[in-house]
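Lecture 7, part 2: worked example. A protein chain together with iron/sulfur cluster.
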Amino acid sequence: MDAGLKRELEAKVYAGERLTREDGIALYECDDLVWLGRLAHHRRTERNGDRVMFNVNRHLNLTNVCSASCAYCSFQRKPGEKDAYTMRVDEAVRKAKEMEDEQLTELHIVNGLHPTLPWRYYPKVLRELKAALPNVKLKAFTATEVQWFEKISGLSADEILDELMDAGLESLTGGGAEIFDWEVRQHIVDHDCHWEDWSRIHRLAHSKGMRTPATMLYGHIEEPRHRVDHVLRLRELQDETGGFVVFIPLRYQHDFVDSADGKIRNRLQARTTMASPAESLKTFAVSRLLFDNVPHVKCFWVMHGLSVAQLSLNFGVDDLDGSVVEYKITHDADAYGTPSTMHREDLLDLIWDAGFRPVERDTRYDVVREYDPAPSLAERRAEPQRVWA
Ligand code: SF4
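Predicted complex, written out as structure tokens:
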């Protein structure tokens, strides 16, 4: 990037001006990672100061049986496959109850598009989970799952969301977004929930008072212009509804064959690499700069390892996805030795060691507890970091 364009973009960011599609593409073409980080950190700090939010949550996947076979997915199994599973309602409740002692505030529930489970199963699970764990917020189902419920129930998304909310649903999850541009999407997604339905369902959720996350799967066959397009669609919807609370760039993962049957399910693997840490930091930074109307940008540390997660806090990120005891969708495709469990104390140390102030939040991003700011650099240097990976 030439110095003139750099000065122009810098002036826009410092003046708080909205960046364009061309600006976004130019930022992705720039290899000056430190400069990009500085701009993104400026935007992040303006909005969120030195705070890094986290929540204490657990992931629950009720079934890995799925009618679709998305090209990047290592999680889905077909009925009858060796490690296919579906939890009965009482099993899901028992599993959730086992987590009760860990002071969790949120259960994050996403699932395969099960071909034969009836629609009634889903509100029933939520209702019973809520009864068993009344203080835990239920963040559940992607827009893709909601569209699937429309098909299997004959109900409208409006009726479905009403029933799920009545059963205890606090928020949808942000998944199913992947990359919206059809040029890419047609090659990676194997169901028929695309931008039109995904945005329709989130718009509806926002109109009912929900605050939802939005994700983007990057680092596979898409190009930076597709990432820019993805963010700009979300930014426009956010101008309309204001209902997105966080943007989560998700790093596409290869399948490292840790499943019980040893099969590689990821069909993109032969022709893709995974995004490098530098590319991930760039994606966080450009996302923060472009998506100027979303309050938070999240790093899901399970996909990056803790070191990159810490660095991301200087590249636009102000939210770390919390403690995770079980997260099957990524861990079916992970060979990095990333820990699968982090507890509140680990996250606090991680955030302090990176030089930020931890803030525990709930599902709606309301503050649960604000902690002390980071100790001075001298104090941090005097004691080796306790949590590392
Ligand atoms: S990404 Fe979701 S919908 Fe696609 S195959 Fe995997 S579980 Fe099924």
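The mean pLDDT is 92. The two ends are 34 Å apart (CA to CA). Keep this in mind for problem set question 3.
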